[in-house]
Amino acid sequence: MRRTTSGQIRIVWVYSIAVGMLFALAAPIVKADGWAPRAPNTFSEITGGIGNTRHNLTMSYLGNGKNNMTPYRNDFGEICVYCHTPHGANRRVAAPLWNRTVTPRTYELYRSKNSPGQPVSQPGPNSLTCLSCHDGATAIDSIINMPTRKTGAYAGWSSSAETNVDFDSLSQWTGGTVGAHSALNNLGRGPAGANNGACLSCHVPLAPSGAPDFQVFVIGGQYNDGTSLPSGDNFLADDHPIGVRYPDHFKTGSEYAEPTLRKARIAFFDKNGNGHADPNEVRLYDSGDGYEVECASCHDPHGVRVSGGNDLTPSFLRVGRVVYQPQSTYQKDLAVGNPASELCLTCHVK
User: Fold this and answer.
1) Could you tell me where the beta strands, DSSP code E, fall in the chain?
2) CA-CA distance, 49 to 59, in Å (whole number)?
3) Beta-strand relationship, 266-268 and 261-263
4) pLDDT tens across 289-330, in order?
5) Main-chain phi, psi angles of 172, to 5 degrees
6) Would the pTM count as exceeding 0.85?
7) Which of 104, 167, 267, 291 could pair covalently with 259 via S-S, beta carbons 3.0-4.6 A apart?
8) CA-to-CA distance for 103 and 288, rounded, in angstroms?
9) Within a 10 A sphere around the Cβ of 74, how many other Cβ atoms?
10) How far apart are the first and last CA of the chain?
11) What letter does residue 344 receive in the DSSP assignment?
12) Residues 250, 252, 257, 263: what is their CA dihedral angle, to the nearest 10 degrees?
């Protein structure tokens, strides 16, 4: 038998490490919510937190380390500031330290066309906060209190931004590159650069950029078909019944499950029996018209950890599992996040 020298062993060891690194680099970086940035920064390595989700608007997705959204919004350099501020929060919406513009608008609701029976009302704070970015009309960097290097008590604060996108104020930000403050919607239909490079200039199947399709995230827009851009705003009739009142009578054979607990303006399904509405528990909100379904009934914008691990349920679902489908020894792709309709069956008895 041929003997192996220490030099040969060293060469084989180095070669093995090099091959392993090549496989690791070739495999996509699958993040906890299914998002796979190509150039992760420090925050994108954090598991089980908002820094590792699509709601981290400071994250880079380009190989050169630059954020591909930079020309179209102010990169404030802080994750939380796009939604929250410790001072000067929005006084027009009952949301915690809310830093985003919430424009007054009336939505066409699911009940009006598809859901007879239960009363319906306009979205409450637990939906309006989500719609302040996902309505398809409000710029993603439209905040009230900007980080700033200016002097003065109100240097980065704009009262008009509470209900309107204050372009003049946003354009005076001094912390870095000033973007075009584009909204998610792009009625102009075109490549990046149209309508100040709005998000849906690139994030639709029709765009030549090859960027992921974001149409589904414009929950305040109406689509003619699977590839066209919105034909109308303020349209929620094709989404889950936001603003629909949850039944308050539960008989034998009812099609709806009764919430475990009701506390003040929230009712929830207390899975672990601790008497507290945990992030992984579906809840209903009472904004004055009874307990209703809102966006935050099924989604937690900060991400929900899967039991026993740091991975997050896809699409910020409160109930679900991260299920991986092995593609090779070195690669796993996120497959589904709501197997067996666990989220749906929390409320619906079928």
Assistant:
1) 192-195, 221-223, 230-233, 261-263, 266-268, 283-286, 291-292, 323-328, 331-336
2) 13
3) antiparallel
4) 999 999 999 999 998 887 766 777 878 899 987 766 554 433
5) -100, 5
6) no
7) 267
8) 20
9) 26
10) 68
11) H
12) 40
